[in-house]
Amino acid sequence: MKKIYVSGKIGNLPRSVWEMKFLRIKNLLANKYDEVVTPSEICKKVEKEFGVVDYATYLAADIVTISDCSHIFMMKDWRKSPGAKVERAYAKACGIKVVYERWENLKTKWECIFKKN
After folding, report:
1. What is the model's pTM?
2. Among 26, 49, 69, 74, which one is least packed by beta carbons within 10 Å?
3. What is the rounded CA–CA span in Å between residue 37 and residue 98?
4. Do the Cβ atoms of 100 and 25 come closer than 8 Å?
5. How many CB atoms neighbour CB 98 within 10 A?
6. How far apart are CA 37 and CA 17, in angstroms?
7. CB of 19 within 8 A of CB of 40?
């Protein structure tokens, strides 16, 4: 099963902005992977179980999630995020394939809307 985790900058952005940013990428990758996981989803699971927690706890939950993935997708802004750098380093150390945001790695909006099942 091809499962990909989406990694990118979150810090200093309003939650609604980064959630939409990750949702956009998730939708673009949906045709290429069996499952696409975003930090938004991980945050919601953590907060449902523990409430709002500290940065290290969110990052630890992300790392656990990455452990179960075959790929990690690095958004264009990943170099501006200490957390994304840690996620990438962890993925590389574990032999998880790293995919970088480039046009050829994404589907167009229309391809996503009219995806074939």
Report:
1. 0.85
2. 49
3. 14
4. no
5. 15
6. 17
7. yes
User: What's the pLDDT tens digit per position in 54-106?
Assistant: 999 999 999 999 999 999 999 999 999 999 999 999 999 999 999 998 766 56
Q: Give CA separation, 4 vs 13, 16, 22, 97, in Å.
A: 23, 22, 12, 9
Q: Kindly give the residue spans of alpha helices, DSSP state H, lying in 1-117.
A: 15-29, 39-50, 55-67, 82-93, 109-113
3 phi/psi in degrees, rounded to 5: -120, 130
Domain covering 3-113: architecture: 3-Layer(aba) Sandwich (3.40)
Angle, CA of 100, 10 and 74, to the nearest 5°: 10
Cβ–Cβ < 8 Å for 109, 103: no
User: For residue 76, what are the contacts with CB-CB under 8 A and spacing of at least 6?
Assistant: 8, 101
- How many Cβ atoms from other residues are within 10 Å of residue 48's Cβ? 8
CA separation for the pair 79, 84 (Å, rounded) = 7
